Amino acid sequence: FRQFPSPFDVLMLAPLFLVLLGFLVYLFLRGERSPDWLAVALVVGFAFALRLALSLVLSTDLASDTLDTHLFALDILAGDPTRNTARYTYIPAATYLNMMGVTLAGIYALFGAALRTAKFFMVVVAALTCGMVYQVGKDVSGDHRVGLVSALLFAVWPSSVCYSGIPTAEHIGILLIVLFSLVWLRIGRGG
Question: Along the 191 residues of the chain, how does pLDDT read in single tens digits?
Fold first, then answer.
């Protein structure tokens, strides 16, 4: 299976990226008068579209711990998460509380027990992280343009983009780290 996109896959998304980049340059040149929410919405929307497109294009057959997590979530939905522990390769038999498996089971219960549901959830988590990265960059520097550059860099960061369609706990962990940083910054500043 293909691990990374082909040059053709990347070229399909290039016009969208160039339009977004041109708009962001225009906003930067306008300075503080630019609508903050519009630029952030465009960057987060771009991050979402890029990740969704690549998660649909790339073959992401589950292996190792991601397969175990998926199977564990399906076992939770079936009512007995301990029934098939012998088939897990990477989840120790004594570890029945795999939080990513529990999270996936909740997502599967709400939206259907399919791998595409897990992929879509990971894409949404990565796009939300992009919005939070903007806010951290803005809070650290006091300038919304720094937040936009930070969010744009996260939006196109190769490892984040290529692995967004794979259900792993890392995506949720990154979101929680960025959210914790944002809360810490806000508490430190008294607001």
Answer: 344 455 555 556 666 666 666 666 666 666 555 557 777 888 888 889 888 888 877 666 666 677 777 888 888 888 876 666 556 555 554 455 577 888 888 899 998 888 888 888 999 999 999 999 999 999 999 888 888 889 988 998 888 888 887 888 888 889 999 999 999 988 888 75
Q: How far is CA 90 from CA 61, 65, 76, 172, in A?
A: 16, 5, 17, 19
Separation between Cα atoms, residue 66 and residue 23, nearest integer Å: 38
Helix (H, G, I), strand (E, B) or coil at 190: coil
Prediction pTM value: 0.76
Q: For residue 1, which of 50, 53, 57 has the smallest C-alpha distance?
A: 57
Chain position carrying tokens 């990513």? 100
- DSSP label at residue 165: T
- Token readout for 116 is 């595409």
Answer yes or no: are the C-beta atoms of 171 and 125 closer than 8 Å.
yes
Residue reference for tokens 């497109």: 53
